[in-house]
Write a structure and sequence with these properties.
With about 110 residues, this protein is of the alpha+beta class. Helices cover about 20% and strands about 20% of the residues.
């Protein structure tokens, strides 16, 4: 999947502007992503194509990791856990044919 994302970025001339990385979310350090110049966008499993053993606890951990200083967003259709709506805004989008929500930081 990352090859497709990289090909899409290259076809739009963005290959030097986007850093792609695959690694366990729990091993990520988000301290460098505290300005509007650096965004993290994640599309974690949400039980459609990839089965995760405990999605609820995974999403609780994800949302707690994105604090009020982090810029970024989560694309998901998993709605059993939602981020703090005072700090995050929701935009309906589609991921393929799946209706999802793109949760991003509210900008003041």
């Amino acid at each position: 999947m990352i090859r497709i994302a990289k090909d899409n970025a290259r076809s739009r001339g963005l290959e030097n502007d986007i850093h792609f990385e695959i690694k366990r979310f729990q091993k990520s350090d988000f301290s460098a992503f505290s300005s509007a110049d650096h965004w993290i966008i994640s599309n974690p499993p949400y039980g459609k194509r990839i089965v995760a053993s405990d999605l609820k606890s995974l999403y609780e951990e994800i949302y707690s990791s994105f604090d009020e200083k982090s810029f970024g967003g989560i694309i998901t259709s998993f709605d059993q856990v939602k981020p703090n709506s005072e700090k995050r805004s929701a935009k309906p989008i589609f991921n393929g044919e799946d209706k999802c929500t793109f949760w991003t930081r509210k900008l003041n």
